[in-house]
Automatic annotation (TrEMBL):
Keyword hit for Oxidoreductase: yes
Keywords attached to this entry: Oxidoreductase
Sequence ranges assigned to domain Nitroreductase in this UniProt record: 28-185
Organism name: Nocardia terrae
Protein name: Malonic semialdehyde reductase
EC number: 1.1.1.298
InterPro entries, A to Z: Nitroreductase (IPR029479), Nitroreductase-like (IPR000415), Nitroreductase_HadB/RutE (IPR050461)
Broad EC category: oxidoreductase
GO molecular function ontology, one term from the record: 3-hydroxypropionate dehydrogenase (NADP+) activity
């Protein structure tokens, strides 16, 4: 990154080049995992990082189910698209990230100075859903970065039968699946060449 150095204001805390590489520039999406364990402590650390990242009204609508055992992962495999099931089968942990349709019931605790918001969302269902899915999706991205931050690899999967996953894990209908994330130690021998990224000139403008 030396020839692409980012100007940092003096005395402002920032990640080292190693930290930036871990989270962004050198991190890869795994196609296969090594047969190494992921501990409960690892998973707790991932959530502890994820929960501190910002959401609208501090709403925190994302929920996580960690499939830890082979039996639990096998329940998910039939609902994954062809090819994705192979990736998940090698992962020691598969996380299902979901949106809580009743997330607003926690708002009195999460944003106590706004005493009307919980009631507002109780009656404005479409707005509640739209903002909830947006913020839960935002949390999905934080979750991926948290997995990387603890030294593990994250393989997000959008190709799956949402109705099937919901029926398998959330039969009461309160939670709705958004993303599946494979978690583990990456098998670098299975990686393809890294795909290109769009240049700044194509994606960024200053006004």
């Amino acid at each position: 990154m030396s020839d692409q150095a980012i100007a940092i204001t003096p005395n402002r805390l920032s990640l080292s080049d190693d930290g930036l590489a871990l989270l962004f520039t050198e991190s890869r999406t795994p196609r296969r995992f090594l047969p190494l364990p992921v501990t409960d402590e690892d998973l707790h650390a991932i959530w502890e990082l994820t929960r501190w990242a910002p959401t609208g009204h501090n709403s925190q609508p994302m929920r996580v189910v960690f499939a830890r055992t082979p039996e639990a992962r096998e329940r998910l495999l039939p609902h994954l698209a062809a090819g994705n099931d192979v990736k998940s089968k090698s992962a020691p942990v598969v996380a299902v990230l979901a949106y809580d349709t009743r997330y607003h019931t926690h708002l009195e605790t999460l944003i106590p100075y706004n005493t009307t918001l919980q009631g507002h969302y109780e009656t404005n269902i479409e707005e509640r859903r739209r903002k909830g899915i947006f913020n839960a999706t935002l949390q999905c991205a934080y979750f991926i970065m948290a997995v990387r931050a603890v030294g593990l690899a994250a393989g997000p999967i959008g190709g799956f039968d949402r109705d099937g996953i919901n029926a398998e894990l959330f039969p009461d209908g309160r939670y709705e699946s958004l993303l599946v994330v494979n978690i583990g130690h990456i098998d670098e021998s299975a990686l393809r060449d890294r795909l290109p990224r769009l240049d700044r000139e194509l994606t960024v403008s200053m006004v």
